[in-house]
Amino acid sequence: MDTPETTVSNRVGSGDSLRRCNRCFSPQTAGVRLRRCGGCSTVVYCSLECQKVQWPLHKPLCRAETTEDAAKVACYGYASLGAFSRDLDDFMDAHEWAFRMLITMERQLQRDRNPDVPFSELPMLLRFSLRCQTTRSDTHQLRNPAMLFALVSQTFEDLDAFARKNKNTYAQTASTRESAHRNFVREFPHYTGQIFAVEHRVPGTNHASMHFYPIETPLAPALGTPQQRRPISEDMVDFCKRSINDGFPMGMNVSGGFLAYPGTFVRLGKAICEEWES
To answer: Is the whole-model pTM more than 0.85?
Structure first.
């Protein structure tokens, strides 16, 4: 029987950003802001150089926004899918700590509920379903980035079955998966070569994004028993969901750790910045 591990196979650590460059897999930092592809608005790059190098691979999958895309987000007060996607990114940035902790806790619960199943054989896709909460009548400038969307559900699925059922969608992540794999080989000495996927989607729109995390070889058992861990993990899941759905974002520890603290999320100009006041 596998032992629950305390390595990043169960934990999304401080270096695991929710968004990364589609070519080099670099996360967004204070000095580097990820920018969307102007053609499809579905992938991001850290630099013009990465975008140019990746273009031959991305070109067959890149498509401009259609009238159908715009029509599906018009009811929420958006003129384009690109504007909708930018607000979703702001929402994800506002709740980055909560989503990362949710992934961590859900993976631990998944493992504790299936103690006799090797972790590598458990479903490797966690899907978050979101609901847009804006309307046509909302004034865009007054929208609170932390309250634009709500988390409806999170479910595990078999990644291989998802890939077979959604061939075109999964094919669009090929270059990102390759970049992620190279990055994991370089940065994680206990990386097994297996990737865990997380999808964020808004049903009823043409928007969905997928992110990838490394699976590592277990180094040490998790503290306590599954029976002891389960109520704690479930409480953390509930706390994270309430933080997201009540518009109460948690600020990331500026020192780079995984601790967080409550505060006010501030928009400075056009950029969303991590400015927190207790």
So the answer is: no
Q: Is 45 helix (H, G, I), strand (E, B) or coil?
A: strand
Taking the C-alpha atoms of residue 76 and residue 87, their distance in angstroms, rounded to an integer, is: 11
> Which pair of structure tokens corresponds to residue 148?
């634009």
pLDDT digits (tens, 9 = 90+) for 110-138: 999 998 998 888 999 999 999 999 988 77
First and final CA of the chain: distance in angstroms?
Answer: 44
3-state DSSP call for residue 160?
Answer: helix
Burial of residue 257 (CB within 10 Å: 0-12, 13-18, 19+) is exposed
3 state DSSP class of 234: helix
Partners of 130 in the β-ladder: 151
Element (H, E) at 260: strand 260-262
- Distance of alpha carbon 163 from alpha carbon 171, whole angstroms: 8
DSSP 8-state secondary structure symbol assigned to residue 140: G
Output the six-digit token pair for 257.
Answer: 């750790």
- 62 in Cβ contact with 39 (< 8 Å): yes
